[in-house]
Amino acid sequence: MHKFLERSEKYYFHYPFPVTIVGAIHDGRSNFMAAAWHMQLSFDPPLYAVSISPKRYTNEIIRESGAFSLNFLQFDDYKLAGLVGRTSGRQCYKEEVFDIKYDAGVKLNVPVLKSAICCYECKVVDRRAYGDHVLYVGEILGIHYDSDYYKDGISPDMLLYAGNDMYTHAEGALAIFGKTEVEDFLKSKKDTK
Amino acid sequence: MHKFLERSEKYYFHYPFPVTIVGAIHDGRSNFMAAAWHMQLSFDPPLYAVSISPKRYTNEIIRESGAFSLNFLQFDDYKLAGLVGRTSGRQCYKEEVFDIKYDAGVKLNVPVLKSAICCYECKVVDRRAYGDHVLYVGEILGIHYDSDYYKDGISPDMLLYAGNDMYTHAEGALAIFGKTEVEDFLKSKKDTK
Prior knowledge:
2 copies of one chain form a homodimer.
Chain A: E1 3-5, E2 17-18, E3 20-26, E4 29-35, E5 38-42, E6 47-52, H1 57-65, E7 67-72, H2 78-85, H3 94-97, E8 102-104, E9 111-113, E10 118-130, E11 133-145, E12 159-163, E13 166-169, E14 175-176, H4 179-191
Antiparallel strand pairs in A: 2-12, 3-4, 3-7, 5-6, 6-11, 7-10, 8-9, 10-11, 12-13
């Protein structure tokens, strides 16, 4: 690598990342935004984090509702990510303008997108400012998923955000390298000594 | 979506995620592990988080060193992710066994992998237990990247982890949907009213 930066106003070298549509409901009104800053934190209890700018309307909504949903999409639905990502719930009622269909959560008052391949219902258990964003930590109280979509638990074409308004997807499982392969490697190394 | 779980011991529905090789150096000795639980937290200051099991040797090392590197790879290097991910620095000296080549960081005493397409040098600014993992928050003090690799800032084949020891990659930029496309959508919707 021959380039080095001490500072970069924006940095996207770690993309692509899965897109998640963050949904929340407050006072009977839904709101949705797209996020690429999110991650799993823990298996037990199941915790998942998403980072949201304090300027976003979603930030206000989740502060009130104390709950949010994370909805993962197929590649074909990239327009939805762009539409909810590039507009604000302060200016338009996204559910109506973008004709967004959802079911009510089973465990929480959050929207479960009908077009999602997977949705985590999350109850806020921590909220913490880090730099210019706020990290929301949610305990996953319910998991919805489309068992026809996942092949052996692997997503064949999850919608990924590549940066700069570009979308892409992965092609499913291309290579396997687990415990057996690692043991074979270590054995072959030993044999050649 | 027709499946619902209240609890799942493990859950991978949000994969694939970029693989990052977490590197650290303590007492002149390097260590590396693979992680798929990581995310950007902030642009200004540039903050990035990675979640590590307290059982991992890397957890001990980073507690001592107060710094780590995050190294992103091309798909072709998936074996390295499997090798450092499925072994422990307590049992073997990975740098030697897996013949890992790196440069010293410019700003911090962290390893910058020679095979990486991008590396963030991170200084630990927060450390917080969430469930069964520890979240490390790093301030990025240096960014290394291969400008021949990224096309218009987009990664053409970043190594992604699909779960269950499976690896995949994205195909670069497949679709664009930004401000212009959103405005066109909103205009067309208005015109049809």
